[in-house]
Amino acid sequence: MRKARVLFVSQEITPYLDETHIGKIARRLPQAIQERGKEIRTFMPKYGNINERRHQLHEVIRLSGMNIVINNADHPLIIKVASIPTARMQVYFIDNDDYFHRKSVLTDKATGKYFDDNDERTVFFNRGVIETVKKLGWAPDVIHCHGWFTGLIPLYIKKAFTEDPLFADTKIIFTVYDEEFTKSLNKKIVDKAMIDGVTKKELKHLEDASYVNLMKLAIDFSDGISFGSETINEEIIKYAKKSGKPILEFKGEAEYADAYNEFYDLVLEDSSILAD
């Protein structure tokens, strides 16, 4: 029996950006899960304000070079990697000059507003992660998504890549945080997010791409839901509970590692692949 494999995908990870709640979880949880006997891989965007020299990022040539088409335009996919030696943990970064070289994360520092192309940036990141995992040839048993920026991965895995042997048995866990944005994403995200295997009906929530609707889309195609913050939008809580899917309530720092490890095993209980 081989070890279960958990792919962590997060919109931010400490120490590469200023410390946030999501960033701390996405840094500490993979290490804790690895120490509990599971294999891990970790992905995040390579925002332009990440210091590549300080964190010793380098491009992985064998994984780079693909183009991802969004809105009829080609966007080169560049993959970089860095290590956190104290954790025996590598982090893969999804990079692209058009989307990730600006010196900020999701908002314009000058105006404080979300970038107008955050819809395209999230599409590129989500598709980039999946294509890179395919190139790695590493079949994840669980994909654990952190933050709204990862919200399309459940849909893509369950619909566009459901016939791919690498993802055929993959379970998705989506963690909802208290990170609500007030203005909806670009209305054209429905067209931009379309790929083979995905229909407009499945993207119905994004006709008004609000934060709540993006979370509903992620919940629809996930196998388990967790709440990563003490306070979550009540509409999202009700929608998650109505789905009937397994839910992990918010856990504090002292207990979340064991709680998530058990939650992974719960969603994998029908699988023969569990950690020794």
Compact description:
With 276 residues, the chain is of the alpha/beta class. Helix content is 31%, strand content 20%. It has a single domain, classed as Rossmann fold, CATH 3.40.50.
Total beta strand runs:
11
The share of residues in helices is 25-40%
CATH topology: Rossmann fold
Name the poorly predicted regions: none
How many strands, what sense, and barrel or not for the largest sheet? 9 strands, mixed
Strand content: 15-25%
Broad shape: globular
Rounded mean pLDDT is: 94
- Radius of gyration in whole Å, from Cα? 17 Å
Q: Report the structural category.
A: alpha/beta
Number of helices: 9
Kindly report the spatial arrangement of strands forming the biggest sheet.
3-6-7-2-1-8-9-10-11
What count of structural domains? 1
How would you sum up this structure, described in words?
With 276 residues, the protein is an alpha/beta fold. Helices cover 31% and strands 20% of the residues. The protein contains nine helices and eleven strands. It has helices at residues 21-35, 52-55, 97-100, 118-136, 153-160, 189-192, 211-220, 234-242, 256-267; strands at 5-10, 39-45, 58-59, 67-70, 73-76, 78-84, 89-95, 142-146, 171-176, 224-227, 247-248. It has a nine-stranded mixed β-sheet with strand order 3-6-7-2-1-8-9-10-11, with helices on both faces. Helix 1 links the parallel strand 1 (5-10) and strand 2 (39-45).
